Task: inverse folding
């Protein structure tokens, strides 16, 4: 445990920690022996709302490190973009307890993953020493030797083949200071825009969708809108499992305002679908048709907000700007009757949902990877925004479109810092000469240092690695060896390049391809800022020393910069110094959060940007009075666009997906389950989770199972045009007929 820092707020047990509701022993067996059904049944029997936080803790506390808590410290959950505030109970042995922070936006609630955080840092398999591959085997090395090797390989590639022969691949899980530093090192130091990461594969569609619609990335609204909405339109998301405290907040809203309607659109009957008032199960890939058919029904039924549209909305067709009539003409192809066969939802139901969406006092839409991780992800995002714009269901309490984020810091760490191949910080673009010049000046590097063309995005990067064009890659806090699509093809890239992996745990599937492995500190073993889905930045303070010789990712990046002779570019070398540089940089943009000093972040349960000065309380809702960039004279102002109008993009539906055929008659969907997070590198090492969740398995509708002759529990082989998987088949009625479901947390699946 680190010495307490005098300037850190120390939270006292008796003043701020909620009472843990004791439920007594539920099982004779230890929680390790609980299977998933037992656990979920028990939680459901107790009432799901109370199952989060205190009760989950009560169920599982026998597995936790025991001991008296000596010091409670505020922090943030390590895992998902909900960004739950937590209280970490520390003692001499380390983390003794974790509870939901009652003063944070999650009001003390946590999902099971958050409740089990005390087991994370002590989970087996931590990387403690650098390793270098020799004769096919990873062997222990000193930091000096490992970093010298990495530096010499990068230096040689840059000298012989130019800066675009190297790349950085990251994630939405490093702290903001770390990803910002990596972005600056590669774009302004080395001089390559080959900076990308797994956010490209998940929420990049949402980022582009917001930018195309409003001129700026990140949502207009906030979680607090949940407390005011009358209709929830949840599409391509399963928050009851994946963003659980947010779904609990939706249920709370319904309990105090019973007219609330929850609509879930998902081809699978998920836990969210089960707990919604309406479940629509469209055919996979048809949801853009559904959304435009809803728009048609809204226009035809005169359910739009004429005044809002007239004053604040523009329409963009394929040939340029069009007017309201252009929208009407565009929608001719999307009458509910015309699309119902392809969508698999009757026209009357489409009209009903459209009318509920438009006619409520306030409608909030929530979506996640079901829309974002798609070939037509950008079109789906702009069309979701469009539904809110034409109905005026935006810029008022409870009415907003919101994309939910999967990773703890994809918004703050990657989107806001501009750490994708086509971006620069705070909404600037690599292709824009003025933006490049501005950043070169702010970063104090010579004009022309930032290349004028975007670098390689995730998929093209791994292809270029496979062709031998990209020679060296630094991969931090990401597991592309498990999470990339069409993995067999992209694995060649990791095999062929000089592949450096910095991670906290050994033997991930990416490490199997690594030439050098660097042990990284995890979560509260280092300090930095996470930015979650509602533009809220929250500070995670260092409370533990990392094991062995593990180092913070920021230290690794600073070390690499110095060894490459770029220590003058990466002049901020500590987390606090980087934050100061980055916060001041933001004052040159409409993201302005220069008022978020480290001291304020220590004091507050996060602050939402814009936050332009040290007295500013932060901005819950953008584009309306209260947002520092909206003049007092304006009721609404989309200042990201030159004319202040948000844009409805009339993007037609195209059947781009590979459909089923005789040889491959089913569609495979993937997703997460309640207890496991992403590729399981962390959660699948935590005993109660690992023992309580099944190994890789499929879910198939019983109609399909009957047709093929499969029974529940049979081992099956599932083949696609790209590869195959073997697992146990669960026969249910949850997936739509013609589809299969598989979760992706199991590394051996
Ligand atoms: Fe909250 Fe997500 Fe952590 Fe669960 S995993 S406690 S929902 S931040």
Result:
């Amino acid at each position: 445990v680190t010495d307490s820092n005098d300037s850190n707020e120390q939270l006292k047990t008796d003043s701020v920690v909620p009472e843990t509701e004791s439920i007594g022993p539920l099982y004779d067996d230890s929680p390790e022996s609980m299977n998933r059904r037992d656990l979920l049944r028990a939680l459901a029997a107790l009432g799901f709302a109370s199952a989060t936080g205190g009760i989950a803790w009560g169920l599982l506390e026998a597995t936790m490190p025991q001991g008296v808590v000596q010091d409670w410290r505020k922090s943030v959950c390590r895992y998902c973009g909900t960004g739950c505030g937590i209280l970490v109970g520390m003692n001499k042995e380390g983390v003794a307890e974790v509870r939901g922070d009652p003063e944070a936006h999650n009001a003390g609630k946590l999902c099971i993953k958050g409740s089990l955080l005390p087991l994370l840092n002590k989970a087996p398999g931590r990387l403690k020493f650098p390793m270098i591959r020799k004769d096919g085997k990873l062997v222990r090395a000193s930091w000096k030797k490992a970093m010298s090797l990495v530096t010499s390989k990068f230096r040689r590639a840059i000298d012989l083949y130019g800066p675009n022969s190297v790349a950085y691949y990251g994630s939405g899980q490093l702290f903001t200071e770390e990803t910002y530093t990596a972005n600056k090192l590669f774009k302004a130091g080395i001089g390559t825009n080959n900076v990308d990461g797994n956010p490209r594969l998940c929420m990049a569609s949402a980022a582009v969708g917001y930018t195309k619609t409003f001129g700026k990335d990140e949502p207009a609204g906030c979680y607090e809108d949940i407390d005011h909405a009358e209709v929830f339109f949840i599409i391509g998301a399963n928050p009851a499992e994946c963003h659980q405290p947010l779904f609990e907040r939706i249920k709370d809203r319904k309990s105090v305002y019973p007219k609330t309607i929850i609509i879930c659109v998902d081809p699978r009957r998920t836990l969210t679908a089960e707990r919604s008032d309406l479940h629509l199960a469209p055919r996979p890939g048809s949801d853009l048709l559904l959304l435009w058919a809803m728009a048609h029904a809204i226009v035809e039924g005169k359910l739009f907000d004429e005044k809002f549209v007239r004053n604040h909305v523009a329409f963009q067709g394929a040939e340029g700007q069009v007017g309201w009539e252009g929208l009407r003409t565009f929608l001719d192809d999307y009458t509910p009757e015309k699309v119902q066969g392809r969508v698999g939802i009757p026209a009357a139901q489409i009209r009903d949902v459209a009318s509920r969406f438009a006619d409520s006092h306030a409608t909030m839409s929530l979506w996640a990877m079901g829309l974002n991780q798609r070939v037509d992800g950008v079109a789906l995002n702009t069309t979701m925004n469009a539904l809110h714009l034409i109905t005026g269901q935006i810029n008022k309490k409870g009415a907003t479109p919101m994309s939910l984020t999967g990773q703890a810091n994809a918004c703050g760490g990657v989107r806001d810092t501009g750490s994708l191949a086509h971006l620069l910080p705070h909404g600037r673009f690599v292709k824009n000469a003025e933006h490049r010049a501005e950043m070169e000046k702010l970063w104090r590097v010579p004009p022309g240092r930032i290349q004028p063309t975007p670098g390689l995005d995730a998929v093209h990067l791994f292809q270029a690695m496979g062709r031998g064009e990209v020679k060296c890659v630094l991969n931090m806090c990401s597991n592309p060896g498990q999470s990339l699509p069409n993995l067999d093809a992209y694995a060649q890239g990791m095999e062929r390049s000089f592949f450096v992996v910095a991670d906290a745990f050994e033997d991930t599937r990416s490490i199997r391809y690594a030439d050098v492995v660097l042990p990284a500190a995890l979560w509260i073993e280092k300090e930095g800022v996470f930015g979650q889905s509602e533009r809220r930045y929250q500070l995670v303070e260092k409370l533990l020393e990392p094991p062995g010789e593990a180092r913070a990712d920021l230290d690794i990046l600073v070390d690499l910069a110095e060894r490459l002779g770029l220590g003058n570019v990466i002049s901020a070398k500590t987390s606090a110094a980087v934050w100061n540089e980055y916060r001041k940089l933001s004052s040159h943009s409409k993201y302005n959060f220069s008022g978020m000093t480290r001291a304020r972040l220590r004091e507050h349960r996060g602050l939402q940007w814009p936050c332009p000065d040290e007295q500013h309380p932060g901005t819950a809702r953008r584009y309306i009075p209260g947002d520092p960039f909206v003049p007092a004279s304006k009721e609404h102002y989309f200042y990201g666009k030159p004319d202040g109008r948000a844009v409805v993009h009339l993007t037609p539906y195209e059947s781009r997906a590979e459909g089923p055929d005789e040889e491959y008659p089913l569609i495979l969907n993937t997703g997460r389950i309640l207890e496991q997070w992403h590729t399981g590198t962390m959660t699948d090492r935590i005993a109660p989770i690992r023992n309580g969740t099944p190994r890789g398995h499929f879910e198939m509708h019983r109609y399909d199972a009957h047709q093929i002759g499969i029974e529940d529990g049979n081992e099956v082989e599932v083949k696609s045009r790209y590869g195959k998987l073997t697992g146990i088949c669960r026969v249910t009625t949850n997936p739509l007929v013609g589809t299969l479901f598989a979760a992706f947390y199991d590394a051996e699946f």
Remarks:
- The longest strand covers residues 724-732.
- DSSP finds 27 helices and 28 strands in the chain.
- The two ends are 37 Å apart (CA to CA).
- Residues 77, 79-80, 82-84, 110-111, 113-114, 243-245 surround iron/sulfur cluster (CB under 6 Å).
